[in-house]
Design brief:
The structure holds 2 protein chains of 2 kinds.
Chain A lengths: L1 H14 L6 E4 L2 E4 L3 E2 L1 H12 L9 H18 L5 H14 L13 H15 L3 H6 L1 H10 L3 H4 L9 H4 L2
Antiparallel strand pairs in A: 1-2, 2-3
Chain B lengths: L1 E4 L6 H10 L5 E4 L17 E5 L2 E3 L2 H11 L7 H25 L6 H18 L13 H10 L12 H10 L3 H11 L15 H10 L1
Parallel strand pairs in B: 1-2
Antiparallel strand pairs in B: 1-3, 3-4
Classes of the chains: A mainly alpha, B alpha+beta.
């Protein structure tokens, strides 16, 4: 729960909006006692900030962004064992094999949310484990170059061979 | 656009309703339950909306919303976000455990029903004196939640939730809802979701994961 609260504060700072009070109803984060759910709060903060480019360029982009926001909450955050998590990472890696960003040709809320979801997982990996997820690693290394996005999260190291792959 | 689903998949009801409501023609293709459609997913997942060739939405709620937002039926709102997130992170896992639990001879239904109780209570309370879940018109929140609670009619589980049942009956008076239910249940209504064969724990786990 502490990690979720920190993430929401980091995202609010990235967006340049005040975060408000975060509480928890069981494991579900609640903003200011009324807005419930991680995805719902992330989208609300983005609307407040007027950074509408994070919602993509059209209804179709928005649908794909919604899909990845949902995937993060229902498929990544709920992993109960190593095997499931490893399958999710494989899926993200394969999906990103021909992409720079999750949706469209610029950063969106899907990138922001998944960055927060996988940062801690990749931080615990060895260079060679990260090389096995080469597309996911390349995507993250590109995203993390923005210090506004990173906020309190450390820059993750990747091997040079990976960077110049 | 094309809906790809296995036979009798109750989640495909949602996409069919959304397509019909927004007057968008879609093709409905039936495949085997274990067919892998999305190339980067490691487990089979159905239904899928093929938005363009090789461009797939595997999130049913995102597909529903695409029909509603691209045709201007609704715009993004925090209330709809919240209901859709509630549906897929709380309601759906609970309903699936219940539906799969029903066919396991050794599973005590009592426990799963207890888990469903507070979730259905929440919905029932919110529907008090309301025709729709958000505002005064149909939104993707109604469609997403209808598709997931509809199979519970079969278990007579909704009989004590009068606001939910009257909301369902009211939605079923429109042709978009009738046609979708007719197509997916093969005109059998909610009883078609009763699985005859007992599933193994492995199959249940796999099915739950794929959601």
């Amino acid at each position: 729960m502490a990690a979720v609260e920190k993430e929401l504060r980091d995202v609010a700072a990235y967006l340049g909006v005040p975060c408000g009070k975060i509480t928890f109803n069981e494991l579900v984060p609640v903003l200011n006692g009324k807005i419930k759910g991680l995805t719902t709060i992330l989208k609300h903060l983005t609307r407040e900030s007027k950074n509408t480019f994070l919602f993509g360029n059209n209804a179709e982009d928005q649908a794909f962004i919604d899909q990845w926001l949902e995937y993060r909450v229902t498929s990544i955050n709920t992993c109960s064992n190593e095997k499931e998590l490893s399958n999710r990472l494989k899926e993200l890696n394969l999906y990103l094999s021909d992409k720079v960003y999750f949706v469209g040709n610029h950063i969106t809320l899907a990138d922001v949310s998944i960055y927060h979801a996988v940062h801690g997982i990749l931080a615990d990996m060895t260079y060679s484990e990260k090389e096995n997820l080469i597309h996911l690693s390349r995507w993250l290394d590109n995203i993390q170059q923005s210090s506004e996005l990173r906020q309190s999260l450390p820059l993750l190291p990747f091997s040079k061979t990976l960077l110049y792959h | 656009m094309k809906i790809i689903s296995d036979r009798g998949n109750f989640q495909s009801i949602k996409i069919l309703i959304a397509a019909k409501t927004s007057c968008i023609d879609v093709k409905f293709t039936v495949v085997k339950p274990n067919e892998m459609i999305v190339p980067y997913l490691t487990e089979h997942k159905l239904p899928i909306l093929e938005v363009k060739p090789d461009k797939y939405l595997f999130s049913v709620n995102a597909a529903v919303r695409l029909f509603f937002t691209s045709t201007g039926i609704e715009s993004n709102s925090v209330e709809i976000d919240e209901w859709l997130e509630w549906e897929n992170s709380q309601l759906l896992p609970c309903v699936l455990s219940f539906l799969f639990g029903m066919v396991e001879p050794n599973t005590k239904n009592g426990k799963l029903e207890t888990a469903l109780q507070p979730i259905l209570n929440h919905l029932n309370l919110c529907l008090h004196n309301r025709k729709y879940i958000v505002g005064d018109k149909l939104s993707s929140a109604d469609v997403a939640i209808f598709g997931t609670v509809y199979p519970l009619m079969m278990a007579l589980l909704l009989k004590d939730f009068s606001n939910i049942t009257s909301w369902i009956q009211r939605l079923l008076t429109t042709s978009a809802f009738q046609d979708a239910v007719f197509l997916v249940t093969n005109n059998e209504g909610p009883s078609c979701f009763k699985v005859e064969k007992a599933l193994t724990q492995e199959e249940i786990d796999a099915a739950l994961r794929s959601w």
